[in-house]
Amino acid sequence: MNPIRTTLAGAALLTLAACASTEPAAPADPPPPAASPEVAAMYGAMDDNGHHIPAVDPNLLTGDKARRVVDYWTDERPGTIIVDPHARYLYQVQRGNKAMRYTVAVGAAGYGFTGEAHIPYQRDWPSWKPTDNMVATQPELYGPVEAGLEGGPDNPMGARALYLHNSGGDTFYRIHGTMDPASIGRSDTAGCIRLFNQDIIHLAEQTGSMTKVIVLSEAESGKGTVPPRQPLPQPAMMAAS
């Protein structure tokens, strides 16, 4: 487009706008809060087993990131955990075609297991040790903590960890908290399935020993979110990091 013509057209529009009204512009409405007071209270600061958990920044709770009860159709028993790593959600089945839905973060290990498992035990504020592969591929990051870390706010496992086993024993697949709340809803390089610390505490309180866990494959993503015999929705992937 001719730049002179563009400039003249812009000037004409400004002139027309100036002539349209001489009344002062109405004050802009204040921006809506990033999260409702109810949601902000769910993710407020808390103390747990001698550790302080900071409040989640309300700006990280926009959209559908806060836990909530949703419609969910499945024949699985109430209490069953269904992980959809490709949609970045975890569901705990409730009665009446409902489930409590949590937003999760998914690392590379989070895509490494599909199928059924169970939770023989969980740990509060678990310790953590990087794998040999993590140390070998990113020695500058994991070398200083090669010996492992005790549980605490700076531990990547967060406030709780649910350990998944199947007929072959430990799957090395974990559902756990995080030291990085900004990662929730995203996909990055490390970890399995991570929740806000407030959410993993809430989930752990509702989860008994030997709870069944189902991890969906990419082809199954969205299963349960529509009534039976309806086509699965296209995966609604959240922003990746």
UniProtKB/TrEMBL annotation:
Residues 220-241 are annotated as: Disordered. This is Lipoprotein-anchoring transpeptidase ErfK/SrfK. Keywords: Cell shape, Cell wall biogenesis/degradation, Glycosyltransferase, Hydrolase, Lipoprotein, Peptidoglycan synthesis, Signal, Transferase. Pathway: Cell wall biogenesis; peptidoglycan biosynthesis. The lineage of its organism: Bacteria, Pseudomonadati, Pseudomonadota, Alphaproteobacteria, Rhodobacterales. GO terms for cellular component: extracellular region. It comes from the Bacteria. Residues 79-216 form the L,D-TPase catalytic domain. The keyword Transferase applies. One of its GO terms (biological process) is peptidoglycan-protein cross-linking. Residues 1-20 form the signal peptide. The active site is at H176, C192. Belongs to the YkuD family. PANTHER family: L,D-TRANSPEPTIDASE, L,D-TRANSPEPTIDASE ERFK_SRFK-RELATED. The keyword Cell membrane does not apply. It holds the Pfam family YkuD. GO terms for molecular function: glycosyltransferase activity; peptidoglycan L,D-transpeptidase activity. It comes from Paracoccus alcaliphilus.
